[in-house]
From TrEMBL:
Domain called Peptidase M56: residue spans: 6-282
TM regions (residue ranges): 6-22, 34-55, 117-138, 293-311
CDD domains tied to this protein: M56_BlaR1_MecR1_like (cd07341)
Name of this protein: M56 family metallopeptidase
PANTHER family the UniProt entry points to: POSSIBLE SENSOR-TRANSDUCER PROTEIN BLAR (PTHR34978), SLR0241 PROTEIN (PTHR34978:SF3)
Keywords annotated in UniProt: Membrane, Transmembrane, Transmembrane helix
One Pfam family in the UniProt entry: Peptidase_M56
Amino acid sequence: MILYFIKVALLMTVLLIIYKVFLSKINTFKFNRFYLLLSLMLSLVAPLIVLPNLFPQFQNVSHQFERILEFDEKESLPIMAEKASDPSNTVLPVESDFNFVEKSESKNPLPFKKSTLIFVLYLTGIAFFTFVFITKILGFSKLIRSCQQENQGDFKFVLLDEDTLPFIFLNYFFINKEIYQNNQLEKEILEHELTHIRQKHSLDILFVEILKIFLWFNPVVWFYKNVIQLNHEYLADQAVNEAFESRTDYQLLLISKITQKSESFALSSSVNYSITKKRLQMMAEKTHNSKSILLKGYAIACSFLALAAFSSSVQGFQVNPIVTFAQSLEKYEKLIENALEADDRYTLVLKNLDLENLSEAYNTLSEEEKEKASEFPFLEEAAFVKLKELQDNSEKIKITFKFSTPPAKKTIREEVWENWKKEKNLSIEIDDELVEVNLDDYAKEDFALHQVVETRPKGTLKKPEYLLKLTTHDYYEIKHIQVKKVLNHIIAEYQNEDKLDIMYFMKGVNKNVNNTKENLEEIILEGILSHEQKEYKPGPHYHEGVFIPASLTTKNEKWKSVNIFKEQEPKF
């Protein structure tokens, strides 16, 4: 959400600068009006649009922003889940009631989220500026109802007692009653204000005012209103000069109006020296068609590049809502879930996987989200080609991906529970937090896992002390079930009954792989694809370079260790 608003603000700024550089000094006022309004709309939409891969130079812009901004937008539950997914905190379950393992460090969940405060402030701003906007509208409504009106068909005169310059709002023409009744309104001023009504300039201002409610913190929106109102004046001046021949008389008339008293109405254009000076200068501006076409072309080209730069870049056009990141991650996880075996939720069958949609969902994830998503590192371009080839050959090669499974829940025997309650040298840790509690306040059925750790310093003759680690059922779900799936094994089964088991969890032995141009996942899939065309060298197969332990079971041999990556000899 925050990233979206930052992109909107920056994109609005860039598009407004483009307007200032190329369009603000030429008299293409109708085009300028269209450009200003469209740039506001596209600034809201562009950060949500996913561009095709025709624009690879803009591919990582979103991720760069995400790396700069790392707000805590998650609850403490995912924070604990992230901790649980850390391999350093993993404890292997055993059958005995006393386990001698190292104590894991625990983390306290954050008491308050930064994003909650930001969201409250944002809603407060919306409420305040909504109140201001409604107050302005009610002010006009009260003015209209309290004053005499004269219907002129397409518009209405509203006769004011105040001595003020004429102004309009929607199809209402506000004018001093005495000037109207004495027919003292200059024909140029009448034409100017009627142009505002005919071209519905008030709708532009209302649109910007509504944007200001939701983007109240974005100062660029406020600048846009001033620029749009000034362009409205240019449009009205142009209509006057086309209707009447004497441009000089009209300019003198405008200068005379500067010194007149005028009420301030936020939803209508104002008259002052600075604005009048710009209007007079623009009346004298003459832009050749060739120059205007060239400048408009530059503006369109630069705007297109800006819009592309602030958009994502993956295959196919699509529009995501503001919560696109969370929904993309949810879509990714759902596609993984759909490919899992019905009776084994930790085994994924490649044949069942919707690769195209999975790749699309993966490419919309930020780098931070990819770290938290279920591990399936075969969606980058080079490996994805091999993965698709393997899926197309599913009838010949069955591929399954085995994720790490959670520890099995353990039941506490009654006699063991009673002994723990009597033990004096027993510290208690519940859900990774050291606590001072009485076990009499709990039932043994409250816990899904248990582990006892001896804490007596080694080499001493002191009486042993123990740490009892207990895991509640709710925390078990958080720590072991609601965490990212981690890939352990890749199994390839062939028609000739060969079975390869690639131990992916041991990828850490390739410490130097990141310093090479080799893609580990691509090499794994290539090794699986080319297995039937190779003969493996006998003897030790571990060597320097890319390597992950793998075992091969054949019709004639039950098990042997092989290296599917290098040192293979082709069959002749």
